[in-house]
Amino acid sequence: MSTSDATTPLYQQLREGLRARILENALPPLSKLPSESELMNLHSISRITVRQALNDLQKEGLIFKVQGKGAFVSKPKVAQDVTRLQGLAESMSDGQHQVRNRILSLKTVKANPHVAGRLALPPNTPVCRITSLRYLDRQPIAIDISYVSEAVGWSLKSADLAARDLIDIYENDLGLALGNADLVIEAAGAAATEAKHLKIASGAPVLRIERVIFTTGGEPLHFEAMCYRGDSFRYRLSIERGVGSSRRRAPGEGAVKGTPPNGAKP
To answer: What CATH number is given to the structural domain containing 39?
Structure first.
């Protein structure tokens, strides 16, 4: 614990010291932190001081606590920018992470009403369903169930689905022009089959994401339902307040630009 600044509260000194060790990998992911008693004795501080420091680190997502077992270093969460239409491998193309896919099945099925509605097809239309288990740095990160038309599906059978994003294949192999996508994201608990594939407990937090990808002509091309581990992934986006958005007016401010308050004439 740093003692360079006597005016800095003790819990902040402990927090910063532990944070530095975590970020420098001196305390690697999933390693156990010293117990509260050990930290108290090591730094000659009170239990409430230790708990305040650990609570701050937990709020930052750097550690997690297990009842009866203590505190552990969290695995770093990978951030994905959802403001751009990208595949997982493309979004991780900085070279720091490896993405691979294990294709669990690829077959023709009849579109149920939900899938058919997303693809603007009549119910029971034959579509190609691709179920894959996605790995990030050799760890299972998501289950992806994708649906495309039967014609596009046949074109995918010869593609390297284990190493490439479908978006990459659509654009570069099939010559399709992609426009935009609609996303729905919600938190849920993992079903038993999902938990088995993702190596998590049944009911553990997951992110469920539905995405429809459209061509530049506005036609729905691809619908997918994804289930991401909640402990390993986070999403990042940047939003702007559009021009003309309503705001609370200051006292005496006119409703129309150039109009004096209270109806007074200029």
So the answer is: 1.10.10.10
C-alpha span between 146 and 118 (Å, rounded): 12
Identify whether the C-beta of residue 149 lies closer than 8 Å to the C-beta of residue 127: yes
We report the CATH number of the domain holding residue 135 as 3.40.1410.10
Rounded-to-integer distance, Cα 21 and Cα 36, Å: 17
Q: Is residue 100 classed as helix, strand or coil in its secondary structure? A: strand
Average pLDDT over residues 102-108: 92
215 within domain boundaries? yes
55-95 pLDDT per residue, tens: 999 887 788 888 888 999 877 666 665 667 777 767 666 55
> What separation, in Å, do the N-terminal and C-terminal C-alpha atoms of the chain show?
65
Under DSSP, the state recorded for 263 is G
Tell me, yes or no, if the pTM score tops 0.90: no
* Residue among 199, 236, 209 nearest 92 (CA): 236
Number of domains in the chain: 2
Using the CB atoms, write b or e for 75-88: b if 16+ within 10 Å. eeebebebeeebbb
Domain holding 38, by residue range, is: 10-73
